[in-house]
Amino acid sequence: MSAKILIVAEHDGSKLNPSTAKCVTCAKAMAGAEIVVAVFAADSSAVASQAAQLDGVSRVLKVDNAANAHQLAAVLAPQIVALAGPYSHVFGPSTTFGKDLMPRVAALLDAPQISDVMAVEGPTRFRRPIYAGNAIVTVDTEGNSKVVATVRIASFEAAPTGGSAAVEAASVNVELPTHTRFVSVSAARSDRPDLQTAARVVSGGRALGSAEGFQILYKLADKLGAAVGASRAAVDAGYAPNELQVGQTGKIIAPELYIAIGISGAIQHLTGIKDARTIVAINKDGEAPIFEVADIGLVGDLFQIIPELEKLLG
Amino acid sequence: MNRILVGIKRVVDYNVRIRVKPDGSGVVTDGVKMSINPFDEIAIEEALRLKERGAAEEVVVATIGPADTQQQLRTALAMGADRAILVQTDGPGGVEPGVAARVLHKLCEREQPLLVILGKQAIDDDNSQTGQMLAALWNRPQATFASKVELTGGQAKVTREVDAGLETLEVDLPAVVTTDLRLNEPRYVKLPEIMKAKKKPLETLALSSLGIEARQRLKLVKFEPPAQRQKGIRVKDAGELVDALKKKGLVR
Ligand SMILES: Cc1cc2nc3c(=O)[nH]c(=O)nc-3n(C[C@H](O)[C@H](O)[C@H](O)COP(=O)(O)OP(=O)(O)OC[C@H]3O[C@@H](n4cnc5c(N)ncnc54)[C@H](O)[C@@H]3O)c2cc1C
Ligand SMILES: Nc1ncnc2c1ncn2[C@@H]1O[C@H](COP(=O)(O)O)[C@@H](O)[C@H]1O
């Protein structure tokens, strides 16, 4: 029997998040799979038509409901369960959206969840990182239940567009809880490349010394057209906002170029950049562990090197 | 009584360099330092602070695991928790999140907590599932990845660290909260507290006595070390760096 995969779309109400196209690529790794994307929103038309263009998707289900405006896990989970009947697999992205939601779905389905799928070995067999990426485990559900999974988005390319899947309204009749209410979300700054999908990232650590010090990274990033990232130490110290944290407990990213500046290279940080194509390290301590993973290392004082780089990059 | 239940997991200490066993059957844990999962220390600390602020009267810590896990429960008691529950498994290994969530659900029915605080993920298996699963089974709200928790009357206002920034939710109590790193900084345990903790109640229950089967739904086929990156080069100065990047086609 071939796989039928339901993917829960991530979006902001008007735009489909690139994480969904990566889930589609993961699903396509299962030969012969039928791939359906479900969009939960107050009004899902715009997002559904973007999902319909993803190559490999056969159908898009729209679930419109005012209660879905903020995509709360407790509200979405019972609706996903109501749709899940005919599917062998239910996938979501391993972003904060999917990490929050999918285990709630798995528990309601009495299914196990495989978190952070990095490779598909077969319909029930997957590879995933554990211990902050210091070991990779192959797991198998042995076909005893539905498979609920979150997809490690740094491991998959986005599925290309060019498809034209049918879009259908799905009706879901379940009682939705009112015990969880959205209050607010801090406005994301949209004027620079998004950390999670940027081709280049310039990242700063504790060594930047202050929020003002951190500003020199933004200038360098602008020169490179890069997104800005940060270590936990830099975020904890208030130099950078939490959404910039890269690592085991921050974002896991896979840019073409990652420049780590004044970051020592703790394993929890390295977990977030294992899939970066080229890693550059700038650190005044030649023994810093970041140099063990760097493709290009430069030992020196960042406060001297960054202005020089900026000049050289014109 | 307004009670907070905290779930803690014993894990390999975050400073230990993880090695995969040569036969691929697991990672080396023999003779390795074990600690409370860092996110769970934060969960204990938050519960204690809520109690100190008068929002709760009792803090109960619970773990599901082998007998050795008592050590971590004693540490939690020394931090200030009032009592501890060990739900003991037969084998030396841990349980899957689905089983941990079932056990915690049973404990919720028994203890009737106002709030359950768990870590956002255990740093061994990096699953990040248990809190959400518990909330589903218990049919209660969840507020994951919390960086701020305020209790007011029958509700909690929780700020969450999400990809977009910070999200605030209001949930009815009882509810499940999972902790992110910036929620607080856990206190250090002082020696006299360790002595006092020895006298605090620690109850041991057999997993089977709760009527829960330690089902293993995922077969662990094999463990491997991650792919190693190729050794890189060193450059002397900013000029050489820019040249090296140009050679790779990464800057023009
Ligand atoms: C459970 C857990 C989860 C964690 N999750 C994450 C995570 O997701 N992401 C993360 O990043 N960390 C995480 N950490 C923290 C991690 O262990 C490190 O503490 C953190 O990454 C250190 O940040 P840093 O490299 O900026 O600071 P430091 O380790 O203090 O390093 C600063 C570096 O800057 C260099 N330096 C100083 N001055 C200069 C100068 N003038 N010029 C050039 N170089 C200079 C120093 O040589 C040093 O190497 C986690 C920790 C735990 C326990
Ligand atoms: N065996 C366990 N005993 C008690 N609490 C647990 C156990 N496993 C997980 N937890 C709790 O659930 C959180 C998330 O774990 P996980 O879903 O395994 O990443 C942990 O930080 C703990 O608070």
Describe this structure in words.
The complex is a heterodimer of chains A (314) and B (252). In chain A, 26% of the residues lie in helices and 27% in strands. By secondary structure, chain A is α/β, with parallel strands linked by helices. The longest helix of chain A has 14 residues. Chain A is globular. The relative contact order of chain A is 0.12. The model of chain A has no long low-confidence stretch (mean pLDDT 95). Chain B contains 6 helices and 13 strands. The mean pLDDT of chain B is 95. Classes of the chains: A alpha/beta (314), B alpha/beta (252). The structure holds flavin-adenine dinucleotide (FAD) and adenosine monophosphate. Flavin-adenine dinucleotide sits at the interface of chains A and B.
Element string of chain A (H = helix, E = strand)? EHEHEHEHEEEEEEEEHEHEHEHEH
Largest sheet of chain A: 7 strands, parallel
- Enumerate the strands of the largest sheet of chain A in spatial order, edge to edge or round the barrel: 5-9-4-1-2-3-10
Largest beta-sheet details of chain B: 9 strands, mixed
Question: What portion of residues of chain A is helical?
Answer: 25-40%
CA-CA gap between termini of chain A: 58 Å
Helix content of chain B: 25-40%
What is the strand arrangement across the widest sheet of chain B?
Answer: 9-8-7-10-6-1-4-5-11
List the uncertain runs of chain B: none
What ligands can be seen in this structure? flavin-adenine dinucleotide, adenosine monophosphate
